[in-house]
Amino acid sequence: MIAIYMGLSDPMLEAHVGVVFEDRGDHHGRMWRTLGRFGRSLSLYMGKGHGKVRLHNEIENACVPLAKCVRFNVVQQPLDLFASAIHVDRRRGFLAAQRRHCTTHAGLVPDWVIKNFARPGQPGVVLVDVLYDAKGIGRSPYYYGPARL
């Protein structure tokens, strides 16, 4: 991983650079990827067994207990976070739709929220809710190229 961040090719991939593999089928047909020296095509892979959801959940499930260890008031996947912004007559329907939707994708639900986080403000300290969403990316020349390091 360090080699990739330094802009070097992954030594474990060198013997396999140029190999073409099938990703997943979509509405355009079958999708093929070519393995490059940084492995970016592997990080883009979304076919069977890709593990991105599991990795995302493991990151989320590691960060929330860590926040609790340092006494942050943290809430994991708060379904009602935006409920107060919905008119009271429509709020019940919104919350029901959120619960249904969250079985497959979180939608408007962040992975965790640190409530009443103290930020410097004018004057003194301002308490804010900070929203977090776990993300993962593969090595990309745009973000990890020599010009950006």
Structure explained in plain terms:
With 149 residues, the protein is of the alpha+beta class. It has 5 helices and 5 strands. The chain has a 3-stranded antiparallel beta sheet, covered by helices on one side. It has a two-stranded antiparallel sheet with strand order 1-2. Strand 4 and strand 5 form a beta hairpin. The longest helix has 18 residues, at 52-69.
Sheet with the most strands: spatial strand order: 3-4-5
Low-confidence stretches: none
| SSE string | HEEHHEHEEH
Radius of gyration: 21 Å
Number of helices: 5
Largest sheet entry: 3 strands, antiparallel
**What percentage of residues falls in helices of 4 or more residues?**
25-40%
Q: What is the strand content?
A: 15-25%
| Number of discrete domains | 2
Rounded to the nearest angstrom, the distance between the terminal CA atoms is 15 Å
What class do helices, strands and sheet pairing give? alpha+beta
- Tertiary shape: extended
Strand element count: 5
Average pLDDT, rounded to a whole number, is 77
Descriptive keywords:
5 strands, 149 residues, extended, three-stranded antiparallel β-sheet, two-stranded antiparallel ribbon
Structure summarized in a few sentences:
With 149 residues, the protein is an alpha+beta fold. It has helices at residues 2-5, 40-44, 52-69, 88-101, 141-144; strands at residues 20-26, 29-34, 73-76, 112-120, 125-132. It has two domains: 1-50, no CATH class; 52-137, no CATH class.
